[in-house]
Structures are given as structure tokens and as C-alpha cells.
Amino acid sequence: MPYNKIYLKPGKEESLKRFHPWIFSGAIARIDGKPDEGEVVEVYTSEKEFIAEGHFQTGSITVRVLSFKQEPIDHEFWKRRLSAAYDVRKRIGLAADPVNNTYRLVHGEGDHLSGLVIDVYAGTAVMQAHSVGMHIYRMAIVEALSEIMGDQIENIYYKSETTVPFKAVPFSEDGFLKGGSTDNIAQEYGLKFHVDWLKGQKTGFFVDQRENRALLERYSNGRSALNMFCYTGGFSFYAMRGGAKLVHSVDSSAKAIELTNNNVELNFPGDERHTAYAEDAFRYLDRMGDQYDLIVLDPPAFAKHRKAIRNALQGYRRLNAKAIEKIKPGGILFTFSCSQVVSKDDFRAAVFTAAAMSGRSVRILHQLTQPADHPVNIYHPEGEYLKGLVLYVE
Hints:
Elements: E1 4-8, H1 14-17, E2 22-24, E3 28-32, E4 40-44, E5 50-56, E6 61-67, H2 75-91, E7 102-107, E8 116-121, E9 124-129, H3 132-136, H4 138-149, E10 155-158, E11 175-178, E12 185-188, E13 191-194, H5 210-218, E14 224-228, H6 234-241, E15 246-251, H7 254-267, E16 274-278, H8 281-287, E17 294-297, H9 309-326, E18 331-337, H10 344-358, E19 362-368, E20 387-393
Parallel strand pairs: 1-4, 9-10, 14-15, 14-17, 15-16, 17-18
Antiparallel strand pairs: 1-3, 2-6, 4-5, 5-6, 7-8, 8-9, 10-11, 12-13, 18-20, 19-20
Helix pairs in contact: 2-4, 5-6, 8-9, 9-10
């Protein structure tokens, strides 16, 4: 079936020649036909030369590119793209690792599948659509994924109610598209955890902090650790395995504290080194003393759009200033931003300002980012969203 055609304004094909996977509404001269939300369209230059095809939707990003060549978006297409993503995970040693059955299988633009995220937790894949097109093609994706991974994936859970643009509603209900197992325990580097893919944030666990949690474990021996914005407690149980003498987990959500306690108990039953508090982060930092020499600041995205950047940077400065001020001499601070619109330089400047406000001597030990199963498409630098610093505070 022929696809509807979109024609660009003169000169607006330059980013596509550099293989950038987004086409913004301001670049479009005209649309032939009336494509539905999520429909595949072909994109042509002002000289009527084919340049890309992708999913159409109303909004700032009008087309999410699927391919830079003319090809049918069919079962074989999905199978090729998902196979390529799976092959990367096998080659970097994540898929079929006996001590780690948790990894990101598809990372949107980083795997040339703009608008799609798939995380694997043991025998369950959790699929999340961030575009109308990926929502519409969800069953085609399920069929291709089942064919590629066979019995390695017994269940596929669709979790997109909060991520699909409103235009796809009312047909974006969460639920199992394959299987229906209630076994939600997965493993990361030998540590077990419950995954709340029904009501949890993102796909149920923050897979992107795996390597940074492992790094924290190396610094934990004999230290008193504070895990702020703990969510499921990932950094907490890594600190405990690393030999921390006490670990305090803090989150404003009582549900998160319940998840953290369950995960700590799963790995360290009856261990009295851990205590969790349901409390606002800034309030806790205000009242806490100087008992910690290892602090993790991993807040939710302070800015989800560019208009919020200024307030976000103020939040990062305030948060880090409190931690740097109160951490023990010789303390180590892991601090992060997962806001895509906050650049690496802006985040670093906010932390530098916080350090200067404290008047303490601060060194950078590590500069952190997302792991290899969250690859950044070299033509789509916006995909580098996770920024982190490990600081030594005298």
C-alpha cells in the first residue's frame, strides 16, 4: 500500500542528510493526503527526492524516522530491527548473563526505533511506547519479538498509559500482550529485586543505573550511606553488599519505601543496617546531621521541557549544596541528573556552584553516564540523557 507523502521546505533536509531521526513541524511545507496519527509516511525534499519514512503524529515532532530508505514497515522490518538490538546486547555480554537477567533491549533512537523502549526482567519484557506509531504497531512488535527470543521471553507487558501521546487514547490500556505471569523477581549482578511493572515508574525499575550502582558498591565498605530518592532501593542494597555499616533510604513516596524495604529483605533478610524513611528530600537534608560519608542524589527529572531548565538548575544547586555542606570529611557523593533537556555542561556548572557555596575542597573522581544497553545514536545526541558525577569532599 502506498504511503502518504510529506514535503519539506527548502534546506530543511540537512538534518536528515545527517541521519537525525526527528522531523519537526516547522520543517514541513505540505502534506499530500490526510495521514492518521501513527501512520507511516514518506518524506521528500523540496526537490521531490525521497529522504526518509517514519511514523506521523501531530505535534512538535511530526515524523519519527524509521528508515532512510524506501522499504515496507512490515514483519520483516520489525524482526530485523529487534534482532539487531538483541545482537548488540549479546555482544556486550548482557543477554544470557547468569548473574544478570535485567537489561534494556530497545532504547528508542539508540536502536533506530524512535518512540519504543523494551526492558527485560528475567522472563518478562516490559514494552513502552512513546509515540502513537509504536502504540499502533505494538502487536506487530510483539510477534517479531516472540519469534526472535523464543522461550527466553514468556511474558510481554505493555506499559504505555502515561507515555503515549493523548491522541492514542482510549486504546492505550496497560496489560499483558503475551503471557501473564505474576513472578516479578529479577536479578542484577547477583542481587534480586521486585519489579513493579504494574504501577511503578518507567518500566518498573531504573535499569540505566546498573553500572553506577556497581561502582557505588566498590566505595561502600565501612561507610555510612544515604540513598536519597531511593525508589526501589537499588543503590541501597548494593551499598549493603559492599560492606556499608549503615544505609538509610529516603523517598517522599510511601510506596517506594515499601518497595525498598522488600528488596533489602529479599537480599539481606533481618539485616539491621538498613532503615528507610518516607520524607521529602529537602526536608530530610535540612534536618540530618553529619553522620554520612557516602551520599547518593538520584532525583527524578527536574525538567521535562526547556521552559523548566532554570528552575531545574536551581533545584540541582540547592540539593547538591546541602549534601556537600553536610557530608563527612573524606565523604563521597554520587550525584545525577536524568533530565534530557539539562545538558552535561549545565548540570556540571550547577554542581560546581553548589561546591563553591559550601566552601569545601571537592574533587571529581568519576564522570558517569548511561550504560551500554542505553546506546546513544551518534546522529541523535539528545539521547544522552543521564549525567552523573562522583565527588570526593575533603
